[in-house]
Amino acid sequence: MRRRLLVATVVVAAVATLGSLYFGEIRGYPPCDLCWYQRICMYPLTVVLGVAALEDRTGAWRTALPLSGVGLLVAAYHVAIQATGSSGATCGVGGGCGSVYWRGLGVFTIPRLSLVAFVLVTAGLLGVAALERRSA
Prior knowledge:
Keywords: Chaperone, Disulfide bond, Electron transport, Membrane, Oxidoreductase, Redox-active center, Transmembrane, Transmembrane helix, Transport. With about 140 residues, the protein is mostly helical.
């Protein structure tokens, strides 16, 4: 069960990484400062969790959980900025952190997708941690 959770977190992190590359490189949406911070947290998760799942490593959650936790907080802050419509004082790239370039299903924006990904990865890692602690 632990390894399945690790694989699930890898899939989520990989989809999020590919999604951000799609929006930035193919669709040409400029990432704001907060998007960059989220990328800094998500991209390594794909590698760290991928290696952990392949090698069935125990304790990988200790490395990955801080990255996903920080990413979750940044994504939540980004969603809050976007919800209030403020551009954000620290964001100056493109249209700013409050800009909405894409909307899926009438609800999802790029920061909301990021938040969902970080919630799923964090929940999976907490599950992995709980399973490892229970078996120890």
